[in-house]
Amino acid sequence: MKADVAVIGGGVAGTVAALRARAAGRQVVVLSAGWGASALTSGCVGLAHQAICGPSRTGREAVTALLRTSSAHPYNLVPGVTNALSEAIRFFRAGPASPPLRGASPDDLPLLLADDRGGLRLADLAAESHARGDLRKSHATIGVVDPIGLSWFQAHSVAKGLSRSLAAACSAGVISAAPNVAVVGLDYFRRQSDSLTTATDSARLLDVEGAAARFSAAIGEALALAPVDLLLFPPLIGVDATDAILDRIEAENKVVCAEMVGTSPGPSGLRFQRALEAMLAHAGVPIIRARVSAAPDDCVAALSGGRTRTLARLACGDGAAPKNVEARAFVLASGRYIGGGVEGTRPWAEGVLGFPIAARGEFLERESSAALTRDDPFEAQSLFAAGVRVDAELRPLARDRRPLYANVFAAGDLLAGHDGVVDGSAMGVALLTGHLAGRNAAAI
Ligand SMILES: Cc1cc2nc3c(=O)[nH]c(=O)nc-3n(C[C@H](O)[C@H](O)[C@H](O)COP(=O)(O)OP(=O)(O)OC[C@H]3O[C@@H](n4cnc5c(N)ncnc54)[C@H](O)[C@@H]3O)c2cc1C
Predict the structure, then answer these.
(1) What number is the average pLDDT over the span 200-207?
(2) Mutation to probe ligand 1, out of 32, 323, 342 (largest number of atoms < 8 A from CB)
(3) Rounded percentage of the chain residues whose pLDDT exceeds 90
(4) pLDDT at 305 over 80
(5) 53 pLDDT band (50/70/90 cuts)?
(6) How far is the CA of 252 from the centre of ligand 1 (A)?
(7) Residues 6+ positions from 107 with CB-CB distance below 8 Å
(8) How far apart are CA 312 and CA 314, in angstroms?
(9) CB of 426 shorter than 6 A to ligand 1
(10) Based on C-alpha coordinates, what's the Rg of the chain?
(11) For ligand 1, is residue 38 a contact (CB within 6 Å)?
(12) 7 pLDDT band (50/70/90 cuts)?
């Protein structure tokens, strides 16, 4: 198999890299062993937002603040990073089959969304079903739907938590008034599901023909008892037809409806991952389901030091006769522990070519995972910021701190220096570095 650019990883970073190289006219293939962390996300994109009740910051301001405190962060690799982020976001949203993400440019305040544990979340972009529930818009009464019979969602504690979170946001000046939060009991699922139903199972029930009409009617009955301005559902509004179902409920019941953010694994991540794959299909980029590995002679351990080389091929598939994938350039977008890009076995190594893994600014040797964690689970953990180090072109570095291959680039969670879930930059890094890695690979 031959391509101009081979991308290893079908998550958000790999998808953006592949689309960017394809947009430059290259033949691109994505090689993916399976779904990684991207299929677990809420689909909300944050650039660097952390504390809800801290100073109100635009995406651009949040990135600038993060750079002041985190010198190892991948954003530091990119001069004019906020403009580069804007361009990456524009590119991601411009594709005709792009996921219907809504939200603000990095120059606006982020969306303020409710999560399904009673907290609040800041997002620069979010799936349409979440973005409809932007709490910066004023609402007198918010209803949290209690889908009676679904054991995985505790509406009463979520409503209490949300009420507290909104009061705190109001005291901090994030919103001007805290709405009332009520619970709206909905007797729809009790008749159709059992106690082991997951969020995704529940969502699938609404994709069945005729279900949206019955569901909307049940909501009408519930709202007659407890009218509200904004109705928040746990994320269960279908897997395939979410926005159409929400449109219908809104039109028939004259109420704004949105999904809360959260529940992992759940339908939001599933929808997001499917949308990524639809984007690739639309752009004519094939996805090959296979694990990729390098020939022993191409692995970093056999080569480190000396001149910069050109990688010619990788092996694709675990079977007795793996196929070669030849390309002019390769993008490693293989994620961290969940995706499989970082092997936490000792010695630590990147999973395809065996690049060394760095944490706290140093390459790791045989350290245990425990040595990279702190006792307090709420403190930043070096373990979750471990990854490959790269040069300004996003080429992974060998132990001599030089890129071993001129035509291999890295993107996304695989990069060292950021714990994106803690610093709020996870998806921002994946979009930015995927975009740049795809551009650089296309230029080879
Ligand atoms: C539970 C959870 C919830 C999260 N929620 C959010 C959120 O709401 N918002 C947010 O911004 N971030 C969130 N994050 C973080 C976010 O998911 C990641 O930062 C982002 O998805 C990383 O994308 P990626 O493309 O770099 O990696 P991944 O999505 O992990 O993709 C890695 C890909 O590489 C493939 N791969 C790996 N090794 C090989 C190999 N040898 N051969 C072939 N393929 C290979 C995998 O199969 C996979 O397709 C969350 C993370 C988790 C774990």
Answers:
(1) 94
(2) 32
(3) 76
(4) no
(5) confident
(6) 38
(7) 58, 59, 60
(8) 7
(9) yes
(10) 23
(11) yes
(12) very high
Closest CA to 7 of 288, 322, 275: 288
pTM here? Answer: 0.95
Hey, what are 282's tokens? Answer: 């639309």
Residue with token string 């990854």: 387
- What pLDDT, on a 0 to 100 scale, did the predictor assign at position 13? 98
Return the domain boundaries, the chain.
2-95+283-442, 111-264
Structural contact between residues 56 and 174, judged by C-beta atoms closer than 8 angstroms: yes
Structure tokens that stand for 5 in this block:
């650019």
Question: 396, 390 in Cβ contact below 8 A?
Answer: yes
pLDDT of amino acid 2: 95
Within a 10 A sphere around the Cβ of 296, how many other Cβ atoms? 9
What would the pLDDT profile of 329-378 be if each residue is shown by its tens digit?
999 999 999 999 998 787 899 999 999 999 988 999 888 888 888 888 77
Partner residues linked to 182 by β-bridges? 143
Q: What is the reported pLDDT for 233? A: 97
Residue 442 has pLDDT above 90, yes or no: yes
215: CB partners within 8 A, 6+ apart = 188, 206, 245, 249
* Contact assessment for residue 258 and residue 143, using Cβ atoms and an 8 Å cutoff: no
Check pocket membership of 41 for ligand 1, CB cut-off 6 A. Answer: yes
Length of the chain: 444
> CA 68, CA 379: separation in Å to the nearest integer?
19
Neighbours of 241 (CB within 10 A): 16
The second-level CATH assignment, the architecture, of 2-95+283-442 is 3-Layer(bba) Sandwich (3.50)
Which residue(s) pair with 349 in the sheet?
343
C-alpha 170 – ligand 1 centre gap (Å) = 34
Q: Is the CB of 413 under 6 A from ligand 1?
A: yes
Q: What CA–CA distances, in Å, run from 292 to 19, 257, 321, 332, 350?
A: 20, 43, 13, 10, 12
User: Please, are residues 381 and 373 in contact by the beta-carbon 8 Å criterion?
Assistant: yes
β strands within 213-260, DSSP E: 230-233, 256-259
> For ligand 1, is residue 44 a contact (CB within 6 Å)?
yes
428 lines ligand 1 (CB under 6 A): no
Say if residues 184 and 223 touch (Cβ distance below 8 Å).
Answer: yes
296: cis peptide before it, omega within 30°?
A: no
Q: Please state, in angstroms and rounded to a whole number, the distance separating the CA atoms of residues 223 and 145.
A: 10
Pocket test for ligand 1, best of 15, 29, 40 (most atoms within 8 A of CB): 40
Average pLDDT, whole number, for the chain? Answer: 92
Distance in angstroms (rounded) separating the CA atoms of residues 188 and 239: 17
Give Cα 125 distance to the centre of its chain.
Answer: 11
